[in-house]
C-alpha cells in the first residue's frame, strides 16, 4: 500500500515512521516538502506519488497564537484539509485525518462521544472542526480521528516541557481545573496502522488515553516517575492554579474527555501511565549516550 504522510516531522508523524509495516511504500513530507496550504503543490505531489491513502498529521497547533493569527490557523487546519481532500478525490485516494478534543466546549460531565455536537471555544478548535466538516463533505468515506493531549519522546509536548522546566527552586504553577486524556503518540500511530490495515469502516472516531486527569495530575505523575527512574535528581514541587489564573489568550475546555468506546470495541487502548514510564526511560537512555 502506498501511503503519503503529511506532517511527518511532528511527534505523531515520527511515531508513524517508526512503526509502519514493511509492505507500506511511504512518502513522508513536512512543510518544506509539502505545504498543504498551497493547492497547486498538493495537487502536483499527490498526482506524482498517487497514494492509496493519505495520513494527515499536519496541523497548526499553537492554540494561543491562533487567537491573534486566525487566518494562518484556518489556512492549515481548514483550507489545507480541503486541498488534500480535493486532490485525493481526483486521484482516488483515501484520507485519515487527525483532529482534536478542542472541538468541544468542555461543559459536559460525561465523556464526549462521536455523536456529541461540537462547540469549540477557541480559534484552534473552530478551524479544526471546519477542517473535519470540509473533509466529510468532499470525501464522505474518509477516516477522522479526534485525539487529545499528545505526548511522546519526540517534538514539543507537555511532558517534555515539564521536564525542561524541572529543577527550579520555586514551585511550577500547573493548571488543576482542566481535565483531559493524555495520549501517547506511539499508541495512536499503532491504532492508525491497525485501522488502515483492517479496512475499518470510514467515519469519525475518538482515540485517547483511558484515564482522564488534570494537567496538574498529569505533571505530578510525570515528575514522580522521572524522579523514581533517576531522570531527575531532585523531586519537583508543584503549585495548583486555575485556568483563569493561567491567563492565556485562548479559552480552554474545562473537561474535554473523549469516549473511546467506539474504537475500544475493536482494539485494545493501552494505559497512558505505562507510556509515560516508557518515554522517561527512553529520554534517560538518550541522555546517557
Write out key terms for the chains shown:
289 residues, six-stranded parallel β-sheet, alpha/beta, two-stranded parallel sheet, globular, Rossmann fold, 12 strands, 11 helices
How would you describe this structure to a colleague?
The protein is of the alpha/beta class and 289 residues long. The protein has a domain of 193 residues: NAD(P)-binding Rossmann-like Domain (Rossmann fold, 3-Layer(aba) Sandwich), CATH 3.40.50.720. The chain contains 11 helices and 12 strands. It has a 6-stranded parallel beta sheet, with helices on both faces. α5 links the parallel β4 and β5. The longest helix is centred in the first third of the chain and has 22 residues.
Order of helices and strands, N to C? EHEHEHHEHEEHEEEHEEHEHHH
CATH class of the domain at 2-152 and 183-210 and 257-270: Alpha Beta
Distance between the termini: 36 Å
Q: State the helix count.
A: 11
CATH architecture name of the domain at 2-152 and 183-210 and 257-270: 3-Layer(aba) Sandwich
Radius of gyration: 19 Å
What value does the average pLDDT take? 95
**Ranges with pLDDT <50 over ≥5 residues?**
none
Strand content bin: 15-25%
| Helix share bin | 40-55%
Tell me which oligomeric state these chains represent: single chain
- Return the CATH topology of the domain at 2-152 and 183-210 and 257-270: Rossmann fold
Spatial strand sequence of the major β-sheet: 2-1-3-4-5-10
Total beta strand runs:
12
**Structural class by helix and strand composition:** alpha/beta
Overall 3D geometry? globular
What's the main sheet like?
6 strands, parallel
CATH superfamily of the domain at 2-152 and 183-210 and 257-270: NAD(P)-binding Rossmann-like Domain
Keywords: NADP, Oxidoreductase
Domain RmlD-like substrate binding: 1-283
Pfam families: RmlD_sub_bind (PF04321)
EC number: 1.1.1.133
